[in-house]
Amino acid sequence: MYPTVYLNGQYLPKEKATLNVADLSILRGFGIFDYFRYADGNPRFIEDHLDRFFSSAKLLDLEMPVSREELRTTVHELIKRNGEEEGGIRFVLTGGYSPDGYTPTTPNLVAMAYPFKGPSAEQYERGMAIHLHHYERQLPKVKSIDYLEGIRIQPLLKAKGADYALYVDREYNVRESDRSNFMIVREGILITPVESILHGITRLHLLRLARQLGISVDERAVSVNELKQADEAIICSSIKGAMAITTVDEVLIGNGKPGPVTRRIMEAWDGYCASN
Amino acid sequence: MYPTVYLNGQYLPKEKATLNVADLSILRGFGIFDYFRYADGNPRFIEDHLDRFFSSAKLLDLEMPVSREELRTTVHELIKRNGEEEGGIRFVLTGGYSPDGYTPTTPNLVAMAYPFKGPSAEQYERGMAIHLHHYERQLPKVKSIDYLEGIRIQPLLKAKGADYALYVDREYNVRESDRSNFMIVREGILITPVESILHGITRLHLLRLARQLGISVDERAVSVNELKQADEAIICSSIKGAMAITTVDEVLIGNGKPGPVTRRIMEAWDGYCASN
Predict the structure, then answer these.
(1) Are B92 and A27 inside 8 Å of each other by CB?
(2) CA nearest B248: which of B231, B262, B227?
(3) CA–CA dist A272, B142 (Å, integer)
(4) Which among A90, A139, A154 has CB closest to B148?
(5) What is the structure's pLDDT at A276?
(6) Strands, DSSP E only, in chain A?
(7) What's the rounded mean pLDDT across residues B184-200?
(8) pLDDT at B60 over 90
(9) Mean pLDDT of B49-64
(10) Using CA atoms, how far apart are residues B185 and B216, in angstroms rounded to an integer?
(11) Size of interface A-B (CB pairs under 8 A)
(12) What are the strands, taking DSSP E only, across B72-223?
């Protein structure tokens, strides 16, 4: 974490950025967050992230203690005070110091800045190994802090040699990963789920980029079988941008290397981000 | 909260009992807890609660930073330092200050004491109104801090005039409430779910008490229809002991008043707790 943290209107040294143990995030896991990168001092897709953060708060009936304008200003101030050109910003909004330990009250708002470390060139070239895991996120459209299952299964993924899990629902459709969305390519068309997922900002912009590149996009459910038989598959997030999925539970996707559509999108992504 | 809090080996004034915003409970809702009452300075069923707390930690691969003996001593010390004869104790164990914001590390351990305020005599006499809600807790056997859905639906319960929700699974069986278990009485037999629920310590002891009173007990799934047609129904937790459920989504249970088996259990509970 970078040295200066924003907490409820104050900029504090990170060591002093603390919440009392009465906070509902600590007692009840009740809170939301958002995360985005910044480069050359400019936050990436900040308006989309502000939209989503305010939307998550509304869906959980948490009252945002600052206006959108104030929060945008906070982001720029936090970047400035930390003095680094590159990084990631995380907002967290919690249920606050509830007198009864259950009912949300005035939320606590935190904004933290982190050094940014993305995947290596070798990882982009190799592609990611996926393990399919039966799980449905609760309140999928809310970017809540609930990562109980995602974190719990990390040792399992390691044991299986997988980089990430993709969550499979009770209809055997593949929805998303713990911190990423996913897409497949089939006969040149980019296909990605749209229902019951967290609407990733990177997902949104990758779809825009694809359309700009003349790639057809289809937003609809993707079954496990369809994923395993796809020509190409992509996992995407703010941290990784687009990466190829090259194996799914040891089944090779395509020829087990990043495919042509994935490569076109990966290669165009940094330019797209820089000009948007 | 009572004035003194235990945090990672220290007894602190509650205002100073804080966790850094890097803690995984705040960032990722990753943690477990337990709660029990104490009366006349004696913690109730403490060995059962220690069993469950250590079991929850193990299921999430969190390393308990103290031994069972040390934690038991902490409970007695916390009660003594707060100087009150009656109250409730909450343990919280979090994923700790994770360097990558995702992988659990050395946990933070908190123990807090609270004044105890149970339901009123009038509430015990009236019984509780229940709203059935479709939801399945993730990792039901772990007493995790995940109360996202339980808290989210509180305004809905209020709007419906319900005191508590009972969660209905995809097979239309009723599993549990957000912070309580439940039981029904049918032809004199006490029936309560046993699979895919949090095993409440109050549930455990109410079943023992019932057997002592000569009431037959059957631990098995209970469907929505069976609940609605039950002679009696009970909601139970450390805070409330046993309370009658008198309506379920506006359907009266029995004659809409606490029934004879429920009353026998309610009346014997305090004596059972005092002598166990």
Answers:
(1) yes
(2) B227
(3) 44
(4) A139
(5) 87
(6) 4-7, 10-13, 18-20, 31-39, 42-43, 87-94, 109-114, 128-134, 164-168, 173-177, 181-186, 189-192, 217-219, 222-223, 232-237, 241-248, 251-252
(7) 98
(8) yes
(9) 98
(10) 10
(11) 141
(12) 87-94, 109-114, 128-134, 164-168, 173-176, 181-186, 189-192, 217-219, 222-223
Q: Please give the CATH number for the structural domain made up of A4-114.
A: 3.30.470.10
Q: Which of A110, A146, A151 sits opposite B21 (nearest CB)?
A: A110
Least CA distance to A28: which residue of chain B? B145
Which chain A residues have a beta carbon less than 8 Å from that of B60?
Answer: 148, 152
* Mean pLDDT, rounded, for B37-63: 97
User: Taking residues B28-47, what's their average pLDDT?
Assistant: 97
Interchain contact, B147 vs A28, CB within 8 Å: yes
The verdict on a CB contact (< 8 Å) between A21 and B22 is: no
Average pLDDT per consecutive 10 residues, chain A (276 residues; last block may be shorter): 98 98 98 97 97 98 98 98 98 97 98 96 98 98 98 97 98 97 98 98 98 98 98 98 97 97 98 93
Q: Which chain B residues are closer than 8 Å to A18 by Cβ?
A: 18-21
Name the 3-class secondary structure at A118.
Answer: coil
Tell me the whole-structure pTM to 2 decimals.
0.97
User: Which CATH superfamily groups domain A121-274?
Assistant: D-amino Acid Aminotransferase, subunit A, domain 2 (3.20.10.10)
Domain ranges of chain B: 4-114, 121-274
Note whether A95 and A104 are within 8 A (CB).
yes
The two tokens of residue B158 are 């209020």
Would the CB atoms of B20 and A17 count as touching at under 8 Å? yes
Smallest CA–CA distance, residue A173 to chain B, in Å, is: 17
Q: With an 8 Å Cβ cutoff, are B151 and A23 in contact?
A: no
For residues A248 and A256, is the Cβ–Cβ distance under 8 A? no
Residues of B in contact with A116 (CB under 8 A): none
Reported residue count of chain A is 276
Residue B224 Cα, gap to closest chain A Cα (Å): 21
Residues of chain B with C-beta less than 8 angstroms from the C-beta of A144: 29, 148
- The pLDDT score that the predictor gives to residue B276 is 87
- Cβ distance A21 to B154 less than 8 Å, yes or no, reads no
Distance in angstroms (rounded) separating the CA atoms of residues B187 and B203? 20
